[in-house]
Write a structure and sequence with these properties.
This protein has a single domain, classed as OB fold (Dihydrolipoamide Acetyltransferase, E2P) (Beta Barrel), CATH 2.40.50.140. The chain has a five-stranded mixed β-barrel with strand order 1-3-4-6-5. It contains one helix and seven strands, in the order ββββαβββ. The longest helix has 10 residues. The protein is mostly beta strands and 136 residues long.
């Protein structure tokens, strides 16, 4: 099973590009908080993230450095050969779902103007459940 769920802040603005076939792809890094490593000192882990298509466009256009995002997806192991001929290996999270928790505008202030993300990954089947139908 390969499931990843993270909440973190973008460490830089997302980088939106397009493939030769016209698919949108965005790359960015998030920092997630860890428990204190020593009394009074904060620590963080950093993760590479990638999103495709409508999600890529939405993320690139609606969240900037410092914005907080919840992501769900899977990890992939990737590699490339650098100019010295060395194989560089890295992991990244392929985003399958996300929720922008807060936005950072160009001045670094938080904004609560939340755009609609309901159709980024296609329609989800929703059912109508009444409270009296719930077993708890």
């Amino acid at each position: 099973m390969n499931i990843v769920i993270k909440i973190g802040r973008l460490t830089s603005d997302p980088e939106l590009r397009y493939t030769n076939s016209g698919k949108a792809v965005v790359n960015f890094n998030i920092a997630t908080r860890k428990k204190f490593k020593q009394e009074g000192q904060k620590d963080a882990d950093f993760f590479k993230c990638i999103a495709w298509n409508k999600a890529a466009d939405f993320i690139a256009n609606n969240i900037k450095k410092g914005g907080r995002i919840a992501i769900a997806g899977r990890t992939e192991n990737n590699n490339y050969e650098n100019q010295q001929g060395q194989i560089i290996r890295y992991d990244e999270i392929v985003i399958e779902d996300f929720e922008i928790i807060d936005f950072a505008n160009s001045k670094g202030n938080q904004s609560s103007d939340f755009p609609d993300t309901s159709n980024i990954f296609g329609s989800h089947n929703q059912i109508d459940v009444k409270d009296e139908d719930l077993p708890f």
